[in-house]
Amino acid sequence: MIIVSTDGSCLRNPGGAIGWAWVEHDGESASGGGASGTNQIAELWALLEAIRSHPGEQPLLIESDSQYAIKCASEWLAGWRRKGWKTATGSPVKNVELVQAIDAAISGRSGPVRFRWVRGHVGNEFNEIADTLAGVAARAVRDGTLAPTSPRTSAAQTSAPRNAAPSRPAAAAAADDVMTLF
Question: Which residue ranges does the record annotate as region Disordered (predicted)?
Answer without folding.
Answer: 146-170
